[in-house]
Structure formats: structure tokens, C-alpha cells
Write a structure and sequence with these properties.
The complex is a heterodimer. By secondary structure, chain A is an alpha/beta fold. Chain A is about 40% helix and about 10% strand. By secondary structure, chain B is α+β, with helices and mostly antiparallel strands. Chain B contains nine helices and twelve strands. Classes of the chains: A alpha/beta, B alpha+beta.
Chain lengths: ~375, ~325
């Protein structure tokens, strides 16, 4: 990397020297198992002005969302953060820490005002002015509000930032609040996309980001601001065990004969019928065939659905959400044709009578003509 | 022919006596009551999700073949009503857009139809050869194919349109739900209740089911309540949010009472249930029949009157 290239970059990095930066790039490359030469490539890639900058904030979270993302392979995370986006700040993945990292964030926000994507994982505690989650001496609430107003769009990744998740479970001691609510209360109008899940399927996040990178706009969202391509359908609709449900074949206990046969898990408390997600279609991450909760024999617990995961008891039975029932049912009152009404009969009779009279008259005239000719 | 005024009045008086004796309430047959051990279901339409697991389980455990509503293309098992191959069916009530479950306007609701195992069954009353009998203990109305003569009176008598005749067979039988008697004998519960995943169909003693139904009507809509699944007082339960009920337990008194009880969120006539009085058809018809033939008094008087008239009018011919 030439010195003049670095000058462009240095304003993004907030006082990191060229030497330190190259060191960092090499460490990142090594950390991801890339050859050492990739360090230079990383450095080049970061200067590419086309890539949208991304800032990733963490609040009350378990890093599960990041962990699942690290295990994605198409595209791999390093491909994502090196070639496709510019991940300017991430508390887990950043090599610099402390003031260096904080400065990088501040610099990126300043330089990319209104252009960067903000990713948030974890719920935001709001009780007692948000003192239950502090980063670098500031509350998560404060940092979020500060960063969100300058972002182009916000992706709330994971159930915690989408709905509150684990920290918001009763009795919610820290007042854990989802991102969209914090922003709405603060009057910040930056659009929020929810990618719920615990953790969410990394591909739902990657696809959303790549969609934005490719088309420069946000994907189609549902009422709860989830991307339609991933959360458009209920798990129940595409579940591999659905035929067992329809045939009334249910596992009634863990390990019973029906459970071992792979029957439907509804009676064990599967929340598939009220949870929107694409788990049955794309399974989970890259962990192998059949590996998603229902595939392994455990009922879905509804992690992606607001008010279900972490709120409804794990083995309680789900209610079946169906907007309108299909027309394949026999009806309580089968439709029948209506008989003729009196008015209808009168009109028809009058018409028939008029027609008859007319024909009669015409026929009579024809006869007269015949007579006249003779 | 000449009938004297005096003779006419005599016959008329005898007839009047007959009518008066019929009208006397002491002669009316008493309504039948549920046996203490009567078994049945409580079907709660608000809990039902229309999954039809009961329909397929019923077919499986009663060894019924598929029944298609389109004979030209019999691909699916989709009967429109209970028939000779279907003892149990889930029907749909749908109004307008059908958006909200258990709402009358622009809503939908499911209803399960099968033999109601009436307390005083019209089919048993109408059967001339006692092919249909009601068990005095558990109250199951069952069918004996060896006794049946195929008159199909039961079909006409049933207010719920349940007994179905095998018109397609050479040696036809009447087909209807017999509360899985073959499973009850083995200590199992009827298939539709066992396979209902939500607890919409619960099996138990009618007495207890009635108490459960009355309890549910007291639940506050929106509150969380525990509902039994499969059977009353069993292991399986499910917690659910209560939705509003129509304050009526269908089958408690309808048509003299049934052993299958219904709860619903939309009016029962909308669900296709017949609106019956508290008196059973069997009680009404048997009151008339039994009064007419009581001790053979009325027929003898009637025959005597006829003979008298004939005798009077044929005297001259001798």
C-alpha cells in the first residue's frame, strides 16, 4: 500500500498509523485463516469507495448473532466484510480496542453521515436511563440514538434487537427494549429492518445486506419490518413434518415411538404454526442436512416471532394462525341455486306473451299478403 | 246408508273419549335422562383449528375407504358430508372475507359433525327391528347389521342427518359413528379425541363434560386458561387464551339432550346445527303412538265402532 492511498484511508481510521493499519490488516487475515498476503488485499479493499460502510453496535446480547455469522460460508464473513461492505466498527470482530476502536467509529460516522448501514444486536435497556449496558463509559441507549440518526438504514439483527428477546422476558428487570421502539420514542425516523431469530439464520442477514449492496435499496418488508423473502411464510407451511400434522400423527412424548418415527411435534409445543421464518427451506447455517430444530426432533420454539419465543412457555401448545381457511372444507350450508322469483316469472311471461302476439300478427300479415297475391 | 242421529252421537262420544284420553298428560312418555356413566365428547369450536386430524384418524381406526366429493376425479378424500364411508367430518362456516376466527361477520369457524349419541335417539325409536340400540350404561348408539332390514327409517328419523346407507353395495348396511366401541373395549378412547392435537374434541363422561363446558362459559375472554386435551382429567393439557363463547352448551337440552356437547363462538344455526326444542322427536312420536295403542283400548273401541256401522248398514241386505 502506497502512502498516498493511505492518506485517503487515514481519515476513516482516526489517527492510526500506516504501519499499525497494515499490522491490523494482517492480524485480521490471520485471524480468519487467510494467507498473510491477504493483509495487503484487505487494506486495498477497505479503500474501495464503492462499498457501503457498516457500523455494528452491540447492546444486551450474547454474541450468538455474530457467532452464527462467522460460520456462514457463502459468502463467507471475510468476503462480506472485505469485498462487499466496509465493516468499520464491530465490538467482537475489531482488532483494535479501547480508544482506537471508538475513534474509528466516530470517524466513520462523521465521514459517512447518512450513508452507512447500522447493524444492532442486543436489546437496549432503558430503565434507569439505560445504565445496565455501558460501552466506553456511555450507555447503549445513548450510543444508539447518537449513531442511528446519521445512518442510512438500520438492521436490527437477532430477536433481542427486534423484539427484546431474552433480556425482555418477564420480569424484564432492565427494561430491555427493541431498537425500533427506542428510535420511535426518540423520534428518529431512520428505517429499521428486523432480522429476528436466536440467532437468526446468517443468510437472512447476509442476503439483506447483499440486496442493499446490489440494488441500493431495502428489500420488501412485512408489517413487522422483516424481509419478506425470509419471513413471509409460517414454519408450519413449509415444514417437512407437515404431512404428519395433516394426517394426525403426533409425537406425544420425547423419545416415544412416534417421536422416533419423526412424527409431527405440535403436541410437544411446536410453535411452527405461529412463527414466520424460512428455517424449513434453508435449514440453519451450514451445519448439515436436516439440522434445524424440528429436523433434530425438537419443537420450534418461535424465536423469530414477536411475543412467542421467550414469552410463551416452551412446551405450551401453539395457536394456529391462518388468515383465512382454504376453500377445501365442506361448508356448514352448501350453496344452492335460487328458485324463480314472482317478479321474474311475471316479466318472463309478459315477454313471452308479447313475442307470441307479435309472431301471431306477423304470421297473419303474411297470410294476407299471400291472399293479395292470389 | 242411513245413520241415525243417536248412533252418530254415540260414535262421536266414543271418539271424544279417545281424544280426551290422549290429551291427558299422564299418558305422555316421560323424557329419558342421561345414564350416569354416559360417555361422549365435548367439542369446542373455538379451540378447533380445522386440521382434520380427527377425520383422518377416524377413517384409519374404523377402516373406512376414501370418499370423494367428485366421482369423476376421485383423487382426494374430501367428502362434503358424513356418508357411508365417513363417520366424522369437519365443516367450515365462512362469512364475507372470513378473516377472523369465531366471528359471525367476516369470520370463520369450524364444526365437527358426527353421531350425537342422543339421550333419546330418534333412530332407535324409529327402527322397527331394533337393529339400532342404545347401550343402557355408556349410552352409545350402536348398529347390528344382522338385524337390519334396510328400511332406512333411521335415516329419515335422525334430526342431525347422521345414519347413512350404503347405496353402492349389494348387501348394504347403515353406517354411522359408534363412538369407537371397538377401541373402548380395549380401554382406548375414540380415535378423533385421541388424535385431536388442540383439545377441541375431549372425551369423557357426559356429566363431567357438561361441568367443563359450563366452566368454560364462565371464563373471561382474553384470560389464559388450561384446557384438557384428548380426555378429561387426563395427563395432557394445553394453556390457551380464551375467545368469546356463545352462552349455550349445544346438546345439553337440544332434542332431549345428546352425549356430544358443543361450544362455539358463532351461533349454532350458522354452524349448521338444527334448532331443536327440548323435547325429543322420539318422545313426541312415542307419546302419540303409545297413547293410541295403550292396552289396545282405543283400537278395540275404534274397530267396534266401525263394525257397528257396518252391521247397521248391512242388516237390510240379509
Amino acid at each position: 500500500m502506497k502512502n498516498k492511498d493511505f492518506k485517503v484511508l487515514s481519515q476513516h481510521l482516526g489517527g492510526v498509523s500506516r504501519r499499525d493499519f497494515l499490522k491490523y490488516c494482517s492480524i485480521v487475515a490471520a485471524g480468519m485463516g487467510l494467507p498473510l498476503g491477504a493483509g495487503a488485499q484487505i487494506a486495498e479493499a477497505v479503500v474501495n469507495p464503492k462499498r457501503p460502510p457498516v457500523i455494528w453496535l452491540s447492546a444486551q446480547e450474547c454474541t450468538g448473532c455474530t457467532e452464527s455469522l462467522l460460520r456462514a460460508t457463502h459468502p463467507t464473513l471475510e468476503h462480506l466484510i472485505l469485498d462487499l461492505i466496509s465493516l468499520d466498527y464491530h465490538e467482537t470482530l475489531s482488532t483494535p480496542s479501547g480508544h482506537q476502536a471508538e475513534e474509528a467509529r466516530a470517524a466513520s460516522i462523521k465521514a459517512n453521515k447518512g450513508k452507512f448501514i447500522l447493524v444492532v444486536d442486543g436489546a437496549i435497556p432503558v430503565k434507569d436511563n439505560g445504565i445496565y449496558c455501558m460501552i466506553a463509559g456511555r450507555t447503549a441507549l445513548d450510543i444508539l440514538k447518537d449513531t442511528a440518526k446519521d445512518a442510512a438504514a438500520i438492521i436490527a439483527i437477532g430477536s433481542c434487537s427486534s423484539w427484546g428477546g431474552v433480556p425482555s422476558a418477564d420480569p424484564n428487570p432492565t427494561g430491555a427494549t427493541p431498537v425500533h421502539k427506542v428510535l420511535a420514542d426518540a423520534g428518529i425516523k431512520t428505517p429499521v429492518i428486523n432480522i429476528p431469530g436466536c440467532p437468526p439464520n446468517p443468510y437472512n442477514f447476509l442476503s439483506t445486506v447483499l440486496y442493499y449492496v446490489t440494488f441500493k435499496k431495502l428489500p420488501e418488508l412485512d408489517k413487522l419490518a422483516r424481509p419478506m423473502f425470509a419471513y413471509g411464510r409460517l414454519i408450519h407451511e413449509n415444514c417437512e413434518r407437515r404431512p404428519h400434522f395433516d394426517a394426525g400423527r403426533f409425537a406425544t412424548e420425547f423419545g416415544d415411538e412416534n417421536h422416533r418415527k419423526g412424527y409431527c411435534l405440535y403436541k410437544l409445543g411446536c410453535k411452527g404454526p405461529e412463527t414466520h421464518a424460512n428455517c424449513p427451506s434453508i435449514l440453519f447455517g451450514d451445519t448439515g442436512a436436516g439440522t434445524w430444530p424440528v429436523g433434530t426432533g425438537h419443537p420450534c420454539f418461535g424465536c423469530t416471532e414477536k411475543g412467542i419465543g421467550f414469552h410463551k412457555p416452551l412446551f405450551s401448545r401453539a395457536s394456529l394462525h391462518m388468515v383465512t381457511p382454504p376453500d377445501t372444507y365442506p361448508h356448514t350450508q352448501e350453496q344452492q341455486g335460487k328458485g324463480a322469483t314472482i317478479a321474474g316469472v311475471v316479466v318472463a311471461a309478459a315477454a313471452a306473451g308479447a313475442a307470441f302476439a307479435a309472431v301471431n300478427k306477423v304470421a297473419g300479415k303474411l297470410g294476407e299478403d299471400e291472399k293479395g297475391k292470389k | 246408508m242411513e245413520i241415525k242421529r243417536r248412533d252418530f252421537l254415540k260414535v262421536a262420544a266414543a271418539g271424544g273419549l279417545l281424544v280426551a284420553s290422549n290429551a291427558h298428560p299422564a299418558l305422555a312418555r316421560d323424557p329419558k335422562t342421561r345414564s350416569k356413566d354416559a360417555l361422549g365428547f365435548l367439542y369446542d369450536s373455538t379451540v378447533c383449528t380445522g386440521c382434520k386430524a380427527c377425520v383422518s384418524a377416524c377413517k384409519q381406526y374404523n377402516e373406512m375407504p376414501q370418499s370423494s366429493s367428485s366421482p369423476q376425479d376421485p383423487l382426494w378424500d374430501n367428502p362434503l358430508d358424513t356418508d357411508s364411508k365417513t363417520y366424522n367430518i369437519i365443516k367450515l362456516y365462512k362469512n364475507g372475507t372470513g378473516e377472523i376466527k369465531d366471528r359471525e361477520q367476516d369470520g370463520h369457524a369450524y364444526v365437527k359433525r358426527q353421531c350425537m349419541h342422543c339421550v333419546d335417539p330418534a333412530c332407535v325409536s324409529a327402527c322397527p327391528v331394533s337393529a339400532l340400540t342404545k347401550d343402557p350404561k355408556n349410552g352409545v348408539v350402536s348398529y347390528n347389521k344382522s338385524a337390519c332390514i334396510g328400511c332406512r327409517y333411521c335415516q329419515l328419523a335422525c334430526p342431525y342427518n347422521i345414519p347413512k346407507f350404503e347405496f353402492e353395495k349389494t348387501f348394504p348396511q347403515i353406517r354411522k359413528c359408534q363412538l369407537c366401541s371397538h377401541r373402548l373395549e380395549k380401554g382406548e378412547i375414540p380415535a378423533c379425541a385421541e388424535f385431536c392435537p388442540t383439545g377441541a374434541t375431549v372425551f369423557g363422561k357426559v356429566e363431567d363434560l357438561l361441568a367443563e363446558a359450563r366452566k368454560r362459559l364462565q371464563y373471561k375472554p382474553g384470560s389464559k386458561q388450561v384446557y384438557p386435551v384428548e380426555r378429561l382429567n387426563g395427563k395432557a393439557v394445553a394453556e390457551r387464551e380464551v375467545t368469546p363463547y356463545i352462552p349455550q352448551v349445544y346438546g345439553e337440552k337440544e332434542g332431549g339432550g345428546t352425549q356430544i356437547l358443543y361450544l362455539a363462538g358463532v351461533p349454532f344455526d350458522k354452524l349448521g346445527m338444527p334448532m331443536l326444542g327440548e323435547r325429543s322427536d322420539a318422545q313426541r312420536s312415542e307419546t302419540i303412538q303409545h297413547a293410541i295403542y295403550k292396552g289396545m283400548v282405543a283400537p278395540i273401541i275404534f274397530l267396534g265402532g266401525l263394525l257397528y256401522v257396518v252391521h247397521k248398514n248391512t242388516k237390510d241386505h240379509k
